[in-house]
Structure formats: C-alpha cells, structure tokens
Amino acid sequence: MDDKNMDEKVSKPHKPAAPVKPQAPKESPFVPQPVKRRRSAGGFVLGLIILLGLGFAVYRVVAPAPAPPARSGRGAGAGAPQSVGVATIGKGDIKIIFSGLGTVTPLATVTVRTQINGQLTDVAFIEGQSVKKGDFLAQIDPRPYQLAEEQYEGQLVHDQGLLDQARTDLARYQTLVQQNSIARQQAEDQVYIVKQYEGSVKSDQAQIDTQKLNLAYCHIVSPVTGRVGLRLVDPGNFVQTSDTTGLAVLTQLEPMSVIFSLPEDNIPEVTAQMKLGTELSAAAYDRANVTELASGKISTIDNQIDTTTGMVKFRAEFPNTDETLFPNQFVNVRVLIKTLHDVVTAPNAAIQQGAPGSYVYLVNQDDTVSVRKVKVGPADNGMVQIESGLNPGDRVVTDGTDRLSDGARVTIPADKADKTGSADPAIPSKGSSHRRNAE
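Request: output the structure for the sequence above.
Response:
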C-alpha cells in the first residue's frame, strides 16, 4: 500500500506555481560609501625604517655620552682620588761625574827572557809569587862563559906583553935617531906598531868584559816589582835568545792603572779642569757598576781622538795596595769633574718626558696635581738639578705618575708621604753613567 501511494505520487504531474509579480523597491536616500584601498606591505616597512633612523639620529645628538664602564684592578675607581707617592723639593749638592768603560792595565808587564844561550839549571821563583826588583829568578849554566873569559884574559896578557915590548923599542929607536945611528923610517914605523898592540889589548879587554856580562846574564833577576805568573820553562831545558815564550811573565800590581774612554763631547770640561791644575779624582767600579773597587786620580789624556768611535782614551792611576784591581779586568771608571753646591734638586723619578719636554706633576694645596714644565741639569745618585720651574718646598709626584692627568685629585698614604723633605737617593742602575742630562 505504501508502495502504491508512492507510485501515484510519482506518476502525478507537477503543477507549476503562479508567477509572483515583483514589487517596485522603495526609494531611499543615496549615501556614498568610502572606497577601500589595499595598503602595500613594502611601503609600510620602508616608512618604519625611516622613522627608526630619524629617531636614532636625534637620540645620538641630544642624549648625553654614556659613562665609561668601571674597570677593576689598577684602574678601578677612576673618579676617586689616585694614591701617589710624593717628595718635597729641597737643596743639595750635585756631582758632575763622567763614566766610561775601561780595562785594568799594569804600568809594567815584563816577559822575562834569556839574553844568552844555555841550559836552564835553576828556577828560584814560585808561580804567583810576589817579587821585588833585583830578586833572583833563574840560573843558566855559566861555565862556557867562564872559560871564554879566562881565554880572553890570557890573550890580553899576551898582547899586553907585545905592547910593552913595542913601547920599549920605540923609546930606543927615538934615541938612536937623535944620534943618527938608524934610519928615521924605522923609528916612525915603530910608532904604528905600538898603536897596533894597543888596539889588540883594548879588544882583548872588551872580550873579557863581554864574558863578564854574559856571566851576569846567566844570573836572571827580576827587572820590576810585581807578581810572577805561571812558569813557562822547566829547569833542564836549553834556552835561547830566539825563544819568544820566555821564562815567565812579571806584572806590576802596585800602583795599577786603568785605561778608559770618554766621548769627545766631554773633553772640553775635562781639559778645562786639568789646565787649571785641578787633580781629577777617579773611582773604579766593578763590571756591574755597583761595587767600588778603588779610588785614584787621572794621570794623563791621549793626544788624539779615535775617529772610528769618537772616543778619547784616559789613564787613571790607583795605589792598589789591597790588589783589588786585577790586570785586564773590565771596570767602570767614574771621573768627578766638579761639584755644584746648594742647588735645587729633585728625585729622578719625578721627572717625566713628553710633548712639552721635561715636566713634573706638582701637588697643589687642594690635593690636585698640575703639570709643571721644568728645566733640568746634571744628575747624581738618583737626584737631578732643577734649573728652573720648581722652588724648595714644592711637592712633586714620584710614584703613580702613569695614572695621572692635569687637574686629577690625589691622595697621599702615610707610607708614601715624604717625611724627610727629600726623596731617598736611588741606586744607579747597572751600566749607567752619570752624565749631563739633555735639556
């Protein structure tokens, strides 16, 4: 039944609906609508970049500079007062000293050589022994020269007899010539025979003296007072005058000299003092220029300047009674030219070098520092003469200057305060020479 009704509904034709008459729309007032535009993404980004750039430029111009970051360690607390050491300017003496490297040179160095040929029979010295002039050193076999001396003495006796006979004949001939008993020529010839025998006798005597001298040479003595070095020849050897090594070397130790050099620029001041008759004192220091070995005086100056080095040589003499100076030792010699008395002095550590030249950091009453240009003179033992720029009583910075600037505020700890009124003299550095500082 259901299927039948369904078939009927399907087979019944569909009746179209009546058309609906459209109604006229109601009139309403006209309202214009805004036109919507699509924005570009690229333009937005470009505008944003321009605005950010302008804002950053205005910030850099208007905003204050940022404070530097705080540093730790030595530079920490830049705004706080700097801890420094100070010294008070005072007066004192400045020694003008020239220094040069020298070599200890003995006044006498003798190589003892034999003056005759012969066998060395005895050596009387000990190596390193101190001897005096004339002390016995060695002995050469004298027997050959003793025999030669005796031979020439016999020849002398023979020739002396012939001379005496010739003189007797001459006297006889002169008498006979006066009596016209012999020819005058015979008497004249006898005169020349006498002269010949006189020559022979004189030659024999010279030969005897030569052998005596050789015998003296066999006995070798010290020519100077000094110290004997190592023995170069042992007893039993045959020594000759042609030997170059010698028997030993003698060196005079007292007094001792040092030959050193100074620049030619120092010559005028040195020679000026020597012309005035001033005795220039000299001090010899070890090679490290720390320990004083001996004190003496300048004895002479060389007569020319070495053109290759621009230096001139000096000789200084030292008593060397304690034998602290050893031959060929390298030493530093300091020559005292003159002493400047009661001049304004400052520690070397206070002097700085820069664009204005020589300057110091002067400590003001309000515990600030100011740069003060100074003119310096010669330096001595850690102190330097102040020719202008400072007065006695001024305080200058000696420690901590690398962290200061003009107008900086400082503080002076108790352990760095100058209680004595002057800085402690600094020990000269190794190899340094006290010379006039350049202005």
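The chain has three domains: 82-92+341-416, 99-106+255-338, 109-249.
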